[in-house]
Design brief:
Blueprint: E1 2-5, E2 8-16, E3 23-27, H1 36-45, H2 51-64, H3 67-75, H4 81-103, H5 109-127, H6 132-145, H7 147-150, H8 154-161, H9 170-178, H10 186-197, H11 199-221, E4 226-232, H12 238-244, E5 251-258, H13 261-270, E6 278-284, H14 290-293, E7 300-305, H15 314-326, E8 328-339, H16 347-353, H17 362-372, E9 378-381, E10 388-394
Parallel strand pairs: 4-5, 4-7, 5-6, 7-8
Antiparallel strand pairs: 1-2, 2-3, 8-10, 9-10
The chain binds S-adenosylmethionine.
């Protein structure tokens, strides 16, 4: 499989682990077959940096860190010395490179992209066997050391600081959909662009496009004169903009709920009252309580969610699926989107801005759905990369109608 990054091609292999048969990714750089041991040997034989130099760099960097950050690091378990050394060395390399980009106007975005991609790749390979605590510690060190540089990117800074308290708030997502760097410096704009060019970001943009098309198709194909559609955790309602601009001659009541009032205000500004056939109703609600608080007899013809399932533990995701199916009209459709973490470099968001998704590949996702309900479902994708999968349930189809999902 080939991972397309702008104009270069980076080979990406997916291998099966024998022990547990879950898929693992090995990222390779574009010129050589990369082996973890070779790389470690390179680090060891590098004469410029010895252990004590790296060690004193680490200590001096730590002393500049904010004290709460430092205590967070100290409270985490000490990782093994080898990765401690290697991560520090690569962090120093990243620090020097990003500082250089800051001052050298001749460094192109393509060079920046390749270098940062390789740095993150090396960090991922060096630390992939660490336990969660030790990995967190190394990541905190990396981000803390580069804080003033990474922070030049308004996009990365928002992603990391999480002003609403969770990753991927509607402003963040809308920045992604707008697809433009927004920072004030060259380095900041390069980092913004790196975020926007990531495989994950492209898949997330495709996801809303594809979902919008599916809803429009459903509206056009339905024989009903009036339809009730429910958008769970609607965010900035990107796909809704597309829907209110579409032409259809039936009444659509579009119910959107989200825990964030500001995101609902954004929808009110951009999508409400834009099409006489579409009535947008907004609710401030939590997924854990929405259906419980839904006092109306009104059921829905189409329910969907994009962008939340990857953060939901199994128990909450299962109840979301069950409640959505219960609240469908007889011919109703329920669609739930999810990302396959094995198909994009999930360590980029993890190292750069501490975004971590629940890891479910397609089979694990299907298994969870099968243990939640005996209703059959079909699966479709955001593009031929298949990073985001959509499971689609039709209330009127039973297991006997469709034996194989
Ligand atoms: C990743 S965004 C996706 C938004 C939108 N569906 C999209 O694809 O652009 C996740 C959204 O879920 C909302 N959210 C997170 N946790 C929630 C919860 N427990 N209940 C309701 N909404 C929640 C956030 O406010 C945010 O708008």
């Amino acid at each position: 499989m080939w991972l397309h990054a702008n104009k270069i091609f980076l080979p990406m292999k997916i291998v099966k682990s024998h022990e547990n048969s879950t898929k693992k990714i090995i990222f390779l750089n574009s010129t050589s077959n990369y082996s973890k041991d070779d790389k470690k040997n390179n680090v060891k034989s590098d004469g410029d940096l010895n252990y004590s130099k790296v060690s004193s760099y680490k200590k001096s960097t730590l002393s500049f860190l904010d004290s709460s950050y430092l205590s967070k690091i100290n409270n985490l378990q000490k990782s093994d010395d080898k990765s401690w050394f290697d991560v520090t060395k690569i962090t120093l390399e990243a620090f020097n490179f990003l500082s250089e980009v800051n001052h050298d106007s001749t460094i192109t975005y393509q060079k920046f992209y390749n270098k940062l991609w390789n740095i993150l790749n090396e960090l991922h390979i060096l630390t992939k066997d660490l336990n969660q605590q030790s990995l967190k510690k190394e990541q905190l060190f990396f981000r803390g050391s580069l804080f003033n540089l990474l922070n030049q990117s308004l996009v990365l800074s928002r992603a990391l600081t999480k002003p609403y308290g969770y990753p991927g708030d509607f402003v963040m997502l809308q920045t992604l959909y707008d697809n433009k760097p927004i920072s004030n410096t060259k380095l900041g704009c390069y980092l913004d662009q790196f975020f926007l060019d990531d495989e994950l970001a492209r898949a997330v943009v495709n996801r809303v496009e594809v979902m919008g098309n599916r809803v429009i198709q459903f509206i056009n194909n339905s024989e009903k004169d009036e339809l009730n559609i429910l958008n769970i955790a609607s965010g900035s309602g990107f796909e809704l903009k597309k829907i209110v601009n579409a032409n259809f001659n039936k009444k659509v009541i579009y119910h959107c709920f989200d825990q964030e009032v500001a995101s609902l205000s954004y929808i009110a500004q951009h999508s409400q009252d834009k099409n006489p056939n579409v009535e947008v109703r907004l609710y401030k609600e939590d997924i854990r309580t929405f259906f419980r608080n839904w006092k109306s007899e009104q059921k829905f013809d189409f329910i969907y969610n994009i962008g939340l399932a990857d953060y939901l533990p199994n128990i909450i995701m299962s109840s979301l699926v069950k409640e959505s199916l219960e609240n469908l009209n007889p011919q109703g459709i329920f669609v739930l989107a999810h990302k396959d973490y094995t198909l994009f470099p999930y360590h980029h968001p993890s190292w750069l801005y501490d975004w971590n998704f629940i890891h479910r590949d397609l089979e694990q996702y299907k298994d969870l759905l099968r243990t939640t309900t005996d209703k059959p479902f079909s699966v479709w994708f955001e593009s031929d990369k298949k990073i985001v999968y959509f499971s689609e349930f039709n209330k009127s189809v039973t297991t006997n109608d469709r034996k194989n999902n």
